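All the exercises in this workshop are built on plain-text protein records. Sequence and backbone structure share a record, each on its own labelled line. The question running through the whole workshop is how a given chain folds. The record below serves as our worked example for the rest of this section.
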Amino acid sequence: MWYNFFQRCHMLKLEKFIQEATRAAGKSTLRKFGKITTSTIKTGKLDFVTEADLLSNKMIIGSIKKNFPEHGIISEETGEHNIDSEYTWIIDPIDGTLNFSKKIPLYVILVALRKKDKLELACAYDPVHDEMYFAKRGGGAYLNGKRIYCSKQRTVNDSTGFVSDRLTPEKLALMQNFGDYLKGGRVITSGIHCAGLSGVWVANGRMDWNITSGTGHIWDYAAPCLIADEAGCKVTNFQGKPWDYKDNRIIIANPVLHAELMKVVNGRYQ
């Protein structure tokens, strides 16, 4: 009995912490939004890090190490630390850095907490619009404290959705599948250079589905995948198996649309 009590208290502490740390980091980026003029290139001119990314990352990791020094960390900007720990934090200090650098107000701070091999908590904070998405495994998904659910759209032909925005051969083939399947139907398939927002907008029903086609990393998807799952979405890889940390080919949609999207993705609609 006492063990369960302390576990509940510990989880409540973690829930409060993840939201406060994510919000504080987001506020720090907002103070720099529109003012950043320099960046450091990572792998190419469209893949870089700004001082706002590094500040957000420093704030989140500093808070984790102060409050939970035994926990592990996976961060886009500083890599892995102590990942054999029971708890591991997964961090993207700014998802949508390209948008941020171009003064486009579409970016989000992503933080998730994994216990052993299961995601337990997730936050996605949009500081520009002051929107805090939060999810707890088995406890639902919320936007600014209000429960959210995915859309109830029943057909792909009448839906709106996202396909990841990099022009890879796989994406071009996928777009051809959509063209063949829809036959003039109306569907939004452009990306917004922000995997986190694409995912949580499906979670709260603003969009009907999201497909990522082979790009991105665990820090891009951990938080939005848990939030979408807790909002009633079905979140799987292209083979229909529940999303795993290694997957970057992902379908997020309500269960009815998901079944139809699986046919489109795999070309089984003739």
